[in-house]
Amino acid sequence: MPAAFRPAALAPDQVRLTYVGHSTFLIESPRLVRVATDYNDYVKPPVVPDIATMNRAHSTHYTLAPEPGIKHVLHGWRDDGKPAAHDVTHGDVHVRSVATNIRDWTGGGTVRHGNAIFIVEAGTLCIAHLGHLHHTLTAQQLAEIGRVDVVLVPVDGSYTLDLDGMVEVLQALKAPLMIPMHYFSRYTLDRFLDRVRDLYAIELAETPSLVVSKATLPAQPKFLVLPGR
């Protein structure tokens, strides 16, 4: 671990979330188990994670050459077309996946089970990373996801789900805290925030990292914008 990256210890009910950029977050548990979402070759966390989740929409969401120190590499797809169904426990962290479909970028069709939503349970929190979501969620998918406290949301409105569709997903999930990602530019981020401003409170954070627990979740659903790219 680099000497410059020595975060303060977490209480047993806390989780540290750091927005690395694009769709990559570093999630750290009280026992410092580290999960990196949409781990790839371009946007990387400052430490090698214990668990890396990936989706295959574009090369900025996965790598086929992960660092050897990663203990669990979880692809959000399977080469045989069946749904990825991860259910992994490492230390005090539990990670599971819910399969979703993806656009076929070459033929314009749909690849069933081509991506996954990853749910990370750590501390007292349940965190859902929506990945490169291309469609609204079915009742079965919502049931498989279950109750979540924090949702990491792609808000570009074009490469992933359109703005109205993403709002429908968020209203179905009913998470107290939502954090935007995958927005490319301030214009794209502001376009999404303008769409949800009448529905949710919005807060702009000064740093890309926060410590959160069940006790510190907002009383009313809120968007927290972490600086990133």
TrEMBL record:
The domain of life is Bacteria
Q: Which InterPro entries match?
A: RibonucZ/Hydroxyglut_hydro
- One Pfam family name is Lactamase_B_3
Protein name stated in the entry: Zn-dependent hydrolase
What is the species listed in this Swiss-Prot or TrEMBL entry? Answer: Rhodoplanes serenus
